[in-house]
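For the sake of transparency, this paper describes our internal protein records without simplification. The record that follows is passed on verbatim for readers who wish to inspect the format:
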Amino acid sequence: MARPPRGNSSRLAGRFGRAIRATLGDIRSSHRSFVVPAEGWIFVVVTLAIGLAALNTSTQLLFLVFAMMCAFWTLSAVMATSSLRGVALQRTAPRVATAGDAVTIRIRASNRKQRAASFSIRVIDSLDRNLAIGAVFFARIPPGEERSENYRAIFPRRGIYRFSRLTVATRFPFGLIERH
């Protein structure tokens, strides 16, 4: 038996389903971590309290509120992962600096995704002993584009300083989870 032709809505649903499966796969297999800030812990405590109240009183409205709060938590994890996916970073620093003088270091972030923008990206630059030396913030990186920000660093003593890594993080969209 032949299948009926698929319309635009079913193609869109198929793309959306593939995007959700890819994001959930990224969450499971990613080397990145979740950090729960203080606001997130408060949200968890309130969510559990409403869940316990719903179980205790069997009130349908409390079950609905509990389910919506759980959905916010899940959506926060999925959206944060999606926002970080496809972001590539590059650092440009001068080869020589004088001790005590400020130098400008440029961080360039490019969004390699085709259709989705990345929001609320914070990049922390650190030296070889995980000593944070500077940070920049990108509010929005449109799809397929790149943005750059500068920060100023002062090296207090003479010597060789080696940069170790750039750490990227986001709390998008609700601030309940910080994804690294």
In short: The two ends are 49 Å apart (CA to CA). The chain has a mean pLDDT of 84.
